[in-house]
Specification:
The chain is mostly helical. It has one helix and no strands. The longest helix has 73 residues. It is rod-shaped, with a radius of gyration of 36 Å. The N and C termini lie far apart (102 Å). About 5% of the residues have low confidence.
Length: 91
């Protein structure tokens, strides 16, 4: 009877070991998937931040070009002083 008990314990041990190995592999796969998702989210955040910075730069460029255009028409296209330089009169 001791042999039967030892044999069933060995099978139980192998079964538990197999289930544990499977669970560890599943958890490892889940950790890899989670890491990829976090890195992807981080990259998305970087891209979103860069897009926001680019929008601000473009908005500043548009506002500056409007100022230059208004100055151009305000001074007859010659810039301040009639020499075609930068207008120091307009804000």
């Amino acid at each position: 009877m001791a042999t039967g008990t030892a044999d069933s314990q060995a099978r139980f041990g192998q079964s538990v070991k197999g289930l544990l190995t499977e669970k560890v592999n599943t958890c490892g796969t889940d950790v890899i998937a989670l890491t990829k998702q976090v890195l992807k989210g981080s990259r998305s955040s970087e891209l979103l931040g860069q897009a926001a910075r680019n929008m601000v730069l473009q908005e500043d460029a548009i506002l500056h070009s409007e100022d230059v255009r208004n100055c151009f028409f305000r001074h007859g296209g010659g810039g301040g002083g009639g020499g075609g330089g930068v207008c120091f009169v307009c804000p």
